[in-house]
């Protein structure tokens, strides 16, 4: 992304009651998958509601470089003409995934099942993130790392397998990115590729693979896990994909409306896949007034409308098994916890350390510089809620969109303004965050 050399700070101030109706942009996870499966399918895939954030745009560019035809046909409307399973062309230049772990890791899986060699790269944040977790299973399937930076990090050159082997793989951590990479590579292997996860992670890849014509069976595994078996070498056929609004983006106006007294907002068409709704469960346990209506399930993923009203929140304990269903939402939950009465304990957050930034440390710093008492104990985050937040701090974004948005939400309700050093990365996942929050009444300047 070119914006890493220009920073744009912003300040959020205590705002009057938020009101209005908004639809946040399309879901990021589904948008990446629609482009990648469209590129692996035969025929045309028509996507509506695609997230036009930089992360997804970078995935679209990579699919083009691998031989797919990717075109924008209208606002949030895109078509992809795919090359078929294992049909990727050799890219001429390194594939640049910018800030996006999802785009990069899912594309690695897809490339691992094609007889080509591709170099994967990204910005300084993505270059610092672990890739061994992805290439380990892909090497078991026959792909080979030709070159990588220290510790298996980007830039990394991967040679796809000529004859990929189907494997059974137990993911070492709950991660939809690892699971998806193995399944996408498994598309070109003969026989059944199986992924076993001890805790279920988001299942958009599984649902969309079936929508594109693959045969896949999901069974329960233990108390919270799943076993997913994909039959290899299907003919994927281009399909129509309707992308619902992203619950991870909806989280920001949702928490803002709970925190700013007297607020009353509506968020429409928010995806409600149960593997993504941990934040809503938690905010309701804290006493948040969140009403769901107009639930629909006609486009492959469920969605609903939410009315959110200003609420007095109380501290809660969030169990570790809930983490996969709200992994990207802990930053903004920590903000809600800071405004609650009482202590909130969020358990089992080790995966937060390997996101766009070390989100465990960054969240603690964000709260501390704004006068909130917070502690990290092992993998747990403990926030002492005092019913209000002093604010007045400058928050370091660390190339992480969710830190920037969380800090700005905090500033809308804190006693004194909260400033972030750089808002540029918000464009990776929620390009119209600032104008949308302003339309709802948020004071951002
Ligand atoms: O598969 C996906 O679309 C994603 C999976 C999660 O990452 P992990 O698989 O690393 O947990 C999440 O944090 C990311 O924003 C999107
Ligand atoms: C972790 C995230 O994304 P990614 O892994 O795709 O960079 C996120 O959007 O919060």
Structural class designation? alpha/beta
Number of domains: 2
Give the radius of gyration: 21 Å
> What are the bound molecules?
shikimate-3-phosphate, phosphoenolpyruvate
Number of helices: 13
Query: Mean pLDDT, nearest integer?
Result: 97
Q: Major sheet: size, sense and barrel closure?
A: 4 strands, mixed
The unreliable regions are none
Find the CATH superfamily of the largest domain: Enolpyruvate transferase domain
Strand order of the largest sheet: 22-23-1-24
As a percent range, the share of strand residues is 25-35%
CATH A-level architecture of the largest domain = Alpha-beta prism
Q: What's the total count of β strands?
A: 24
Distance between the terminal alpha carbons, to the nearest Å? 24 Å
Supply the CATH class of the largest domain.
Alpha Beta
Q: What is the percent of helical residues? A: 25-40%
CATH topology of the largest domain: UDP-n-acetylglucosamine1-carboxyvinyl-transferase, Chain
Which term fits the overall shape? Answer: globular
């Amino acid at each position: 992304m070119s914006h890493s050399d220009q920073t744009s700070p912003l300040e959020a101030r205590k705002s009057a009651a938020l009101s209005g109706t908004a639809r946040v942009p399309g879901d990021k996870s589904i948008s990446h998958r629609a482009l990648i499966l469209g590129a692996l399918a035969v025929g045309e895939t028509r996507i509506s509601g695609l997230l036009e954030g930089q992360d997804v745009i970078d995935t679209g560019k990579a699919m083009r470089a691998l031989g797919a035809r990717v075109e924008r046909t209208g606002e949030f409307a895109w078509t992809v003409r795919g090359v078929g399973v294992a049909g990727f062309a050799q890219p001429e230049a390194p594939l640049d995934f910018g800030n996006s772990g999802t785009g990069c890791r899912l594309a690695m899986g897809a490339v691992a099942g094609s007889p080509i060699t591709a170099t994967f790269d990204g910005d300084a944040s993505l270059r610092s993130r672990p890739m061994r977790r992805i290439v380990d299973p892909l090497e078991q399937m026959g792909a080979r790392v030709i070159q990588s930076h220290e510790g298996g990090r980007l830039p990394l050159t991967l040679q796809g397998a000529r004859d990929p082997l189907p494997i059974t793989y137990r993911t070492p951590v709950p991660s939809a990115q690892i699971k998806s990479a193995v399944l996408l590579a498994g598309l070109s292997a003969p026989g059944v590729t199986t992924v076993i996860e001890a805790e279920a992670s988001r299942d958009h890849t599984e649902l969309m693979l079936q929508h594109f014509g693959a045969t896949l069976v999901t069974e329960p595994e233990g108390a919270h896990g799943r076993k997913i078996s994909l039959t290899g070498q299907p003919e994927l056929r281009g399909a129509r994909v309707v992308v619902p609004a992203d619950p991870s983006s909806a989280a920001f106006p949702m928490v803002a409306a709970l925190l700013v007294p007297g607020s009353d907002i509506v968020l429409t068409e928010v995806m409600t896949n149960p593997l993504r709704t941990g934040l809503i469960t938690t905010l309701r346990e804290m006493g948040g007034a969140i009403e769901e209506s107009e639930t629909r399930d006609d486009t492959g993923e469920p969605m609903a409308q939410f009315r959110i009203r200003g609420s007095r929140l109380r501290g809660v304990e969030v169990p570790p098994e809930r983490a996969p269903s709200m992994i990207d939402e802990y930053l903004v939950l920590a903000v809600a916890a800071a405004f609650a009465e009482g202590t909130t304990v969020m358990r089992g957050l080790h995966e937060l350390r390997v996101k766009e930034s070390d989100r465990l440390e960054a969240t603690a710093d964000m709260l501390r510089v704004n006068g909130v008492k917070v502690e990290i104990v092992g993998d747990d985050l403990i926030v002492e809620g005092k019913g209000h937040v002093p604010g007045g701090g400058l928050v370091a974004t660390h190339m992480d969109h969710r830190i920037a948005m969380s800090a700005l939400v905090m500033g809308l309700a804190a006693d004194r303004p909260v400033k972030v050093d750089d808002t540029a990365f918000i464009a990776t996942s929620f390009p119209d965050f600032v104008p949308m929050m302003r339309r709802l009444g948020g004071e951002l300047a």
